From TrEMBL:
It is found in: Cell inner membrane. This is MFS general substrate transporter. GO terms for molecular function: transmembrane transporter activity. GO terms for cellular component: plasma membrane. Residues 449-477 are annotated as: Disordered. PANTHER family: L-FUCOSE-PROTON SYMPORTER (PTHR43702), PROTEIN TSGA (PTHR43702:SF3).
């Protein structure tokens, strides 16, 4: 029993753990471990887009009804991010939420087995709902954890790099689907059995990963840590109650609109390809989707590079603007031209989700954990917009024409990109974090030496001054 007592899953939010002051070197292991989760839900999301068209073929359902997969998956997110996962996060911490989310993901994957065996679309949607709760729990913890684990000035870079592995997962899944789900055979039963084995493998892997998380010494980040970080950067000099965090609520709204548009486009990408490009089968459409998701992943890596040269909010505005620019002509264009426009749209979608998370959480301080639940809850847009696109596509008998639906939601999300660039109340907290010295080893050495040479700061007690001198003289980082 000693080993279980050693790995406690609860840390008081009122205690300082120094986790918010981690250097780049100290944060590498926990960041790498959490980044695995990003690949997992990217893979799951990519499977969902492929299964959308697969079930239309094998079960003979309409485009609108097949969007039930997205509705079940993303509809679970607010239940997790605003409900059970957020409660666990605020009362116990990040690690318990990681373990909880992985267990739910594994249970949902196991439930999918008999549902697929009996060709029950409703049952499979229920399994996807459980998986969505698991992944919603993981996102509720992983996105803010990546943002705050390490030097604040690199938050947007960290989350975009981690989210790039999400993009890799979305590439792998359609490729797998094109060879496993869309078989060159009339035997639909065999194709469905292959789906079963995929979900069984997922269940085994995530249960094993939950054990790894339990025994891994990843640092906990408390509300007290985040309050300290916000105070040090002066990003929340005017501390407001949670209900008045208007920047947060605008970010959650933008996340709802953006995610809804992104999910709708990816969910009906194969339909778009098969309808607008002559001689394009569902299997070939899945390969095109894999290519588009490859562009999405590439966009994240390129976005990280641009964020080293320009402010993240500037890159965010440029990328979201170009999403609108490229999706608009895809409504009327056909064939290779239309597909190329969708490829470009996915490329520029790449950095939007993680950057909204990072910018929306700037300066929340002690409200960080609660606020992250609202931003991740905005993912519920993925449950609302695809059915609208599916209904529009069925009504007009054209998926291309229905792309006007995600374009409208992109425009709504654009309002946040404009505010965070041109409204001082939005812009200033984001910029103050870029100059923060927390977690920068050289800066901490320099600050300590200046105090040692210049004397004791008036606000420091003799005990605090002595502790600082020891910290500079040793390697206490």
């Amino acid at each position: 029993m000693t080993i279980f007592r050693k790995h406690s899953l609860k840390v008081s939010d009122k205690s300082r753990t120094k986790a918010a002051e981690l250097t780049l070197k100290e944060s590498i292991y926990p960041l790498c471990l959490v980044t695995i989760l990003f690949f997992l839900w990217g893979f799951s999301y990519g499977l969902l887009d492929t299964l959308n068209k697969h079930f239309q073929n094998t079960l003979g359902i309409t485009r609108a009804r097949s969007s039930g997969l997205q509705a079940a998956y993303f509809g679970a997110y607010p239940l997790a991010s605003l409900g059970h996962a957020n409660w666990i996060l605020r009362h116990y911490g990040y690690k318990p939420v990681f373990i909880w989310g992985l267990c739910l993901y594994g249970v949902g994957a196991l439930i999918a087995w008999p549902c697929i065996l009996h060709r029950s679309f409703g049952g499979f949607c229920a399994a996807i709902f459980v998986i969505g709760n698991g992944l919603g729990s993981l996102e509720t913890a992983a996105n803010p954890y990546i943002t705050v684990c390490g030097p604040p000035r690199y938050a947007e870079l960290r989350i975009n790099i981690s989210q790039a592995f999400n993009g890799i997962g979305t590439v792998v899944a359609p490729v797998l689907g094109s060879y496993v789900f869309f078989l060159k055979t009339a035997d639909d039963t065999r194709a469905l059995k292959n789906v079963q084995w995929v979900y069984l493998a997922i269940a085994c892997f995530v249960f094993l990963l939950a054990v790894v998380f339990y025994f891994s010494p990843i640092p906990e980040i408390t509300d007290a840590d985040m309050a300290f970080q916000a105070e040090e950067t002066h990003a929340n000099a005017d501390v407001k109650p949670f209900r008045k965090q208007y920047r947060l609520f605008h970010a959650a709204f933008a996340q709802f609109c953006y995610t809804g548009a992104q999910v709708a486009i990816a969910g009906y990408f194969i339909n778009y390809a098969t309808e607008t490009r002559p001689h394009t089968s569902s299997a070939l459409g899945a390969k095109f989707l894999a290519g588009a998701q490859g562009a999405f992943a590439l966009g994240r890596f390129s976005g990280v590079g641009l964020m080293r040269l320009a402010r993240p909010r500037h890159v965010f505005l440029a990328y979201l603007t170009l999403c609108i620019v490229f999706i608009a002509p895809a409504i009327t264009q056909r064939g290779n031209t239309g597909l190329a426009l969708l490829f470009a749209t996915l490329f520029f979608e790449s950095i939007c989700f993680p950057t909204i998370v990072a910018l929306g959480m700037r300066g929340l301080g002690k409200h960080t954990k609660r606020g992250s639940g609202f931003i991740v809850g905005g993912v519920a847009g993925g449950a609302c917009v695809p059915p609208l696109l599916g209904a529009a596509a069925d009504a007009r008998d054209s998926t291309a024409t229905a792309m006007v639906v995600p374009m409208a939601f992109f425009v709504a999300a654009w309002s946040y990109a404009l505010c965070v660039n041109f409204v001082p109340a939005y812009r200033d907290p984001a910029d103050k974090f870029l100059t923060a010295k927390i977690g920068i080893r050289g800066a901490r050495d320099e600050e300590g030496l200046q105090r040692e040479v210049g004397g004791v700061d008036e606000k420091d007690s003799p005990v605090e001054a002595e502790a600082e001198r020891k910290e500079v003289g040793g390697e206490k980082f």
